[in-house]
Amino acid sequence: MILVRKPGPTFRDHAGDVREQTFDRLLTRFGPVALWLPGVAFMVAFFLLPVGWIVAQSVLDPGFTLKFYERLAAAPEYALVLWISIKIGLISTLFTMLAAYPVAYLLVIAQPTARAIMMACILLPFWTNILVRCYAWMLVLQTKGLVNTALVDWFGVVGSPLPLLFNLTGVIIGMVHYLLPIAILTLYAGLKTIDLRLVRAAQGLGANPVRAFLAVFLPLSLPTLRATTMLVFVLSLGFYVTPALLGGRTEITVAMLVSTYFSDVLNWGFGAALAVLLLAVTLVGLTIYFALERNRTRVAA
Amino acid sequence: MTIWRKKTWRTTLHAGLAAAALAATLTLMPQHAAAQQETIVFSGWGGTWQAAEKKYYFESFEKATGIKVIDVPDVNLSKIKAMVASGNVEWDLVQAIGMWVPEKPATDQLFEALDYSRIKTDGVPKELIRRNGVATATFAQVLAYNTDAFPKGKAPTSWTDFFDLKKFPGKRGFLNQPRYALEASLAAEGVAKKDLYPITVDRALKKWDTIKNDVVFWEQWPQAPGLLASGELAMTLSSQARIGGLLQQEKEAPVAFIWNQGIMTVDFLAIPKGSKHKEAAQKLIAWMLDPARQAEYAKATAVGPSNTKAFDLLDEKTKETLPSYHFTKDELIVFNDLWWSDNLDPLTEIWNKWKLAK
């Protein structure tokens, strides 16, 4: 209200001073609010509202009903699909992290030029459409694709083509490829804050490079590693394009079913119930993770 | 600090105001333009088929009526449902598969009833004129095969051969959906075309059990021709127009298909409920039902016309490339989209259960 007050009849500059002081006081008091307000508004608009809408869809038809959840519980296949999604998520997270950690470490210790080149190589696939990547993998992984031609015809490593496509292997390859840039960039952001002088100090005290890495760098990187692993796993639960295009008959994920029931069958209630199931599992996983993290910090303190 | 903060604050405020003004101008502009020229949005399947629709229907329509047609790909029923539910209907005309427009109360919620006093339908078969949609094109989902795997004289001739791994070894491909799959396996069992519906699901799936581990269930139609040409699949379901399209692009591609027991499907034109350009959309429907234009479109794409009068304008060679011709020769199974629209939900669950079982 003070902000919009017209200049009073008093000395003009003085009025301006008063206004400015009031403004400053308001900014000091409400400035922090102004800082987190956009974030909260964003979360409400783009996260809470859609999630609320999904939850509402899953229990309304048009009055309150639990029939969609009853249908979920009635067929053991949905539990199986959930297990398949988790299994695919765990395996792809494992391989993603195994591949991402060394790359992130190299990024940290690399010279600026080398790092820039590496970054470009990491980001290029990151910006490529997921459908394009899946179709590219189909060409590479099929029976007469690049990999099998190389293995069988050029090097003669294997006698007959390996089954790399339309099975679990294909799904994992496609998903790891998608998750890698995300994992590498997240890991790198955390790892670069580790003071490399500590590693050098360890070496100065007589540790060989391997020991210095294992005794100093690795333990310091564990919190980042855990957080990134969790992030990658949560992301991996939501995949539906990759398993649908590169998977076989039994690679059915919850996210694929959500897509089917929303887009093809148009049973939004059941699709929403499936989505809520996936969300619930994710939240349980996150809760366990944060509980463990808190415990760890307390013990450390 | 104070000065810096104040400046930033003011700059932000100014920038915000400028952005708001810009946004306001941008939202006002299309309305202004619309006052001069009416624009309707058509959503179809995209790709070469839609490019041909633009060439043979939309461009001439725009010239004749002054109504501009913006065509967008990836038509999708759940997007239409979302648009109608939110009251923000962006698509004025859509290309719909038959399952989307059965004559049911639920369909009336999603699509406008068409005013047939304004849409001339002479030549379109009566059963393809529905309350909320009228047929525009016909397709055949056929058995396609790799000609290297099965050379002339040894090629498959029916769905029975598709399910016979001994005589016709090699990987099979099929759409990852229960529809077409159940028709194909029953046809393989020798069920007559007229006795297919209502589908006996158990029998159909039992037949699929016999080749269960030798099938790739692909997700998207464009996958099939490529996988077939590369030899990854020896036989697959595909659409006759897609295989034809591949052969047009690459004459040497080792692919072929058979008409026998192909499953004929029909696409409809429909207006999402609440379209602000219903009149213009109906004009475009009438335009797209014209036999001469449908004949030109069919020549270019091998997609069949819905208007039978179009056949009078086509030579024998072109006719043979179209589904309707083979339908008249009693080679095709007519896909019952009304039966499927009633059974899609439970059958999707049964299908996934079947896929997961060992």
Structural class of chain B: alpha/beta
Name given to the CATH architecture of chain A: Orthogonal Bundle
Oligomer: heterodimer
Taking pLDDT < 50 over at least 5 consecutive residues as the criterion, the unreliable ranges of chain B are 1-13, 24-34
CATH topology of chain A: MetI-like fold
Can you write the helix and strand succession of chain B as a string? HEHEHEHEHEHHEHEHEHHEHHEH
Instruction: List how many beta strands of chain A DSSP finds.
Output: 0
Which two chains have the most extensive interface, and how many residues on each?
A-B, 34 and 32 residues
Q: What is the radius of gyration of chain A?
A: 26 Å
Largest sheet of chain B: 10 strands, mixed
- Which homologous superfamily in CATH is the superfamily of chain A? MetI-like
* Mean of all residue-level pLDDT scores of chain A: 90
The percentage helix of chain B is 40-55%
Class per helix and strand makeup of chain A: mainly alpha
**What is the distance, rounded to the nearest whole angstrom, between the alpha carbons of the first and last residues of chain B?**
71 Å
Note the main sheet of chain A: none
What global shape of chain A is seen?
globular
Which value, in Å, is the CA radius of gyration of chain B?
24 Å
Written overview of the protein:
The complex is a heterodimer of chains A (301) and B (358). Chain A is mainly α and 301 residues long. Chain A has a single domain, classed as MetI-like (MetI-like fold), CATH 1.10.3720. Chain A is 79% helix and 0% strand. Chain A is globular, with a radius of gyration of 26 Å. Chain A starts with 11 loop residues before the first helix and ends with a helix. Chain B is an alpha/beta fold. In chain B, strands 1, 2, 3, 4, 5, 6, 7, 8, 9 and 10 form a 10-stranded mixed β-sheet that branches. At the A-B interface, helix 1, helix 3, helix 5 and helix 11 of A face helix 1, helix 3, strand 6, helix 8 and helix 14 of B.
